[in-house]
């Protein structure tokens, strides 16, 4: 009796809905993002699930506000993701 679905090759949509520890390969739901302030064009690194209000270092405007889960970006803010923690640490060390 064959199985109704392939357990070794799940679809990406199905994996995304699963709990982070019950996926085929465990991976976190959180990430870091670089948020650019539209006023002073300064880039600030923000955690996706930030629990405090994040302000711009240059002009002190609000970049994101916490919600129950992910932080909500303020209108007009642009961001990029994909940097891992080691790349962020290297970026901060080299920039100082």
Automatic annotation (TrEMBL):
Segments passing through the bilayer: none
Molecular function GO terms recorded: structural constituent of ribosome; zinc ion binding
UniProt keyword terms in alphabetical order: Metal-binding, Ribonucleoprotein, Ribosomal protein, Zinc, Zinc-finger
Note accompanying the cofactor annotation: Binds 1 zinc ion per subunit.
Domain of life per record: Eukaryota
Biased composition (Basic and acidic residues): 1-16
Cofactor entry: Zn(2+)
Region (Disordered): 1-23
Any single Gene Ontology cellular-component annotation: ribosome
GO biological process assignments: translation
PANTHER family, alphabetized: 40S RIBOSOMAL PROTEIN S27
Family to which this protein belongs: Belongs to the eukaryotic ribosomal protein eS27 family.
Name of the protein this chain belongs to: 40S ribosomal protein S27
